[in-house]
């Protein structure tokens, strides 16, 4: 060894691999449970530590195994997913994973604390694994079917706030049903804001109460892109806050 040269240092030991994310799968269909278990456990970053057939079993398994994430179906015999949800969210982040995308169900699940809502058939294996990890970190995921359900309800609420026809004036409209007329009424009212299609979609999600993270997940874009859209939306609506923009968008300002 040359004088003055520091002794060689051994390479530092490799950092220990992080343990796989531990998942509880709750679904009354044994085929779905087996498929999800095989899919997730076959991925090096995740493992299924327990399965459950209903909400009661899910709660008992969550208390026993303390999973990192719970995948929860909506419709199950006995205690269903929505009934069990308030008891499960205190134990671990919950991701709804179901075939149900009715508006009321999606809204109630998110209101009760679900960290995401995935509809079967609307995601790939890699998207599911990423969504599970993201929900564990507090980043929500909502697949398009669930997002559309929320948007449909929001648009219905907005139409309920549309200005009514002035008494004594009969509009000269072709013979159409109310359901056929409603979409064009809402579009006509909002056209004055001159939002692009994407901006209108994001404004709908803002008005539904979604955070930037939730909007990014629903639209499959980055949070930075969401913020850029929101800045342009606020400029067009002459608003500085989400509440101001929502009031104008719903026609109540």
TrEMBL record:
Coiled coil: none
Residues with 4-aspartylphosphate modification: 73
GO biological processes: phosphorelay signal transduction system; regulation of DNA-templated transcription
One Pfam family this sequence matches: Response_reg
Domain Response regulatory: 22-135
GO molecular function: DNA binding
Record keywords: DNA-binding, Phosphoprotein
Annotated InterPro entries: CheY-like_superfamily, NreC/VraR/RcsB-like_REC, Sig_transdc_resp-reg_C-effctor, Sig_transdc_resp-reg_receiver, Tscrpt_reg_LuxR_C, WalR-like
Highest taxon, organism lineage: Bacteria
SUPFAM superfamilies in alphabetical order: C-terminal effector domain of the bipartite response regulators, CheY-like
HTH luxR-type domain segment(s): 188-253
PANTHER family: TWO-COMPONENT RESPONSE REGULATOR
Protein name, per record: Two-component system response regulator
